[in-house]
Amino acid sequence: MTKPTPGDLTKRQQDAATAPETAEASAATQVPAAPERATEEPEPRSEEAKRYRLRLREAEAERDALRERLETMQRAEVERTANLEHPEAVWIGAEFDAFLDGDGNIDAERIAAHVATLGEKYGIQQRKPKIPRIGFILDQSGRPDTYDRPASGNVFDRMAESLSFGV
């Protein structure tokens, strides 16, 4: 065994002197155990708080689902407004938030500017507009013209044959 040096004695004395203080401090910081209740029933206020917490969680889940649904619809609207041959190309070099204004609405001008940039940089072109057919368009002979005319025979005759009316 080695003899204790004077520095060791003072260190031990300091440790011994502070030990009761730390024990008292730790005892003061310990939370006393809650007394057990005589009844098993929870308090009415805690049940009410539990219901409110449950409703809050349900409302937050619904809010998150609606937010996701709105973003999906807005993304589809951005792609539709861009009118590109490949709609997903609108996301090249841009994030979703870049197409929203300060109120969170879709800004068609921002989309148009981005589409113009895509055309310049990458040669991505917009789709040619489709002309809706309302009614009939007459051909040179004055008969109704259909874009998808069969190669031979009258459309109505073929329909009647397929329905077994016989013509």
Automatic annotation (TrEMBL):
It comes from the Bacteria. Residues 1-51 are annotated as: Disordered. This is Uncharacterized protein. Residues 37-51 have a biased composition (Basic and acidic residues). The lineage of its organism: Bacteria, Bacillati, Actinomycetota, Actinomycetes, Micrococcales. Residues 16-36 have a biased composition (Low complexity).
